[in-house]
Amino acid sequence: MFETLAECPVCSGTSLSNYLICQDHSVSQEKFAIARCNSCSFLFTNPRPTSERLPGYYQSQDYISHQNKATNPVNLLYKFVRYFTLRSKVRLPARYQPVGELLDVGCGTGHFLKEAQRSGWSVTGVEPDPRARQLAETNIQNKVHPHPDDIKGEKYNIITLWHVLEHVSDLNAYLISLRNLLAKKGTIIVAVPNHNSLDATHYKEHWAAYDVPRHLYHFDQSTMQKLLAKHKFKIVDTLPMKLDAFYVSLLSEKYLGNGVKGYINSIINGLKSNSYAKKNNSEYSSLIFVIQRK
Ligand SMILES: [Zn+2]
User: Fold this and answer.
1) Given a cut of 60, is residue 245 above it in pLDDT?
2) Structural domain contains residue 40
């Protein structure tokens, strides 16, 4: 059911300490510990559900990244944020690569792929959830694969992972697979939550982007750099996702049960988080890492 990692997935260090205890607010209501590596300070959910058990933690009316219904204010805001972030996401690949072959890993129902396709990209998707995968295939009228290793003999000049890397069980094997799928001078775009943001340090164990146990890893700029360096990648750009500060704050307020006051708090905390990040090493709520081979 659960497995405990004896060593850090980034540096293989075996000296670990307890960092936080967080609750799964959206599905199981169970509590999970986040461990911190004493050598490289990487944070990861430990113990965690086995890869066989993990899909069970995605079965929720609240877990809407795979669904199209907007039923409450948080879901409505999620759709609003998604609409605006979608526009900026779609423009990003062309800043680094000529329009060509694009692979979106963890593509959900294929919204991003559909927009990328409209912008001229030749698109392929990876999505483990069978229901979302089927919807994505209808959306883009093309094959969507369950896992990157199911793709044979293709190379992509852009690979995108929008809030996906924190979900994959075998982090290192996954990065090796992605490296094999990347064209020689290709670019990988990875967006993840940043636990060094002000909204994270404000909400602590209630920070919605810890999202245990679905988020197995909790990155910051330093640990992301270390992980990528191990796989012979370099970060060529680090970009903010400013709307995430508001959305994550709103969700955190909801978990705290703060009602209408929570809406006001989340606007204030979203603004504070973005203004802090501007002055402090781009510590935004979520970050986009633009990556190339070393
Ligand atoms: Zn470590």
Assistant:
1) yes
2) no
Is the residue at 171 inside a domain?
yes
Residue 22 included in any domain: no
Kindly give the distance from the C-alpha atom of residue 189 to the centroid of ligand 1, in angstroms, as a whole number. Answer: 23
CB 99 within 8 A of CB 268: no
DSSP secondary structure, 206-257, as one string: G-GGG-TTT--EE--HHHHHHHHHHTTEEEEEEEE-THHHHHHHHHHHHHTT
Q: What is the pLDDT of residues 265-287, one digit of tens each?
A: 999 999 999 999 999 999 999 99
Number of domains in the chain: 1
Q: Ligand 1 mean position to 43 CA, how many Å?
A: 8
**220 CA distance to ligand 1 middle (Å):** 13
Mean pLDDT of 214-235: 98
Whether the model clears a pTM of 0.90, i.e. scores above it, the answer is yes
Residue 90 Cα to ligand 1 middle (Å): 33
Domain enclosing residue 265, as ranges: 63-293
Residue 112 CA, ligand 1 centroid: distance in Å: 33
